[in-house]
Amino acid sequence: MVGKGANMGEPGTGTFAEALGRIPSGLFVLTARDGSSGRETGMLASWVQQCSFDPPLVSAAVRAGRYVLDWLADGAPFVVNVIPEGGKALIAHFGKGFEPDEPAFEGLDVRRDGDAPPVLLAAHAYLLCRVERRVEAGDHVLVVGRVAAGELLHHGGPIVHVRKNGLRY
User: Domain with 57 in it: what CATH number?
Assistant: First the structure.
């Protein structure tokens, strides 16, 4: 069994937390809308992954206890906005987090379609999803969404994120 500070390699090669942090991911802004009040928000997310081809599904890990989970009930729409390379302004904007009544999209170019949450026009790409199921996973909840639509908005590539430590953001 590997303990919190256990070192699996040669002395001085680092801990399992450092190794865990080296699993690369993207950076994303998950946007959501509260169906009952019409409030909208966005949150920075790094644990988003395609998890099925047929039907096309993605999973997004959201820290347990975040208010946005109340908005992500079965069938609720959410948008995964893929942050582009060089998208530091989006990271800074959404990295601070927002309270439920705080305007999350002030000063940003967005597109709103029907009941869908905002699409960030500065994103590399986006996926419009509807919640299929939720699964508790440790200190996070995996929100699995069926992809309903999406678009590549800008050429280039997505940002790739690697953490120094796999036990914290």
Answer: 2.30.110.10
Q: Is residue 85 part of a domain?
A: yes
Residue 57: HSE in the Cβ half-sphere, 13 Å Cα cutoff? 13
Of 122, 147, 120, 1, the residue nearest 60 (C-alpha): 147
Q: What is the pLDDT of residues 8-64, one digit of tens each?
A: 455 556 898 999 999 999 999 999 999 999 999 999 999 999 999 999 999 999 999
pTM for this model (two decimals): 0.90
**3-state SS, residue 88:** helix
Rounded to whole angstroms, how far apart are CA atoms 159 and 137? 25
Distance CA 78, CA 104 (A): 15
pLDDT value of residue 12: 59
Encoded tokens for 150: 């999406």
Count how many domains the chain has.
1
Token digits of residue 36 = 């009952």
Phi/psi at 20 (5° precision): -60, -40
For residue 157, the enclosing domain spans: 25-161
* Helix/strand number for the chain, H first, E second: 3, 11
- Whether residue 69 contacts residue 141, with contact meaning beta carbons closer than 8 Å, is answered with yes
pLDDT tens string 137-152: 999 999 999 999 999 9
Averaged pLDDT, 62-76: 97
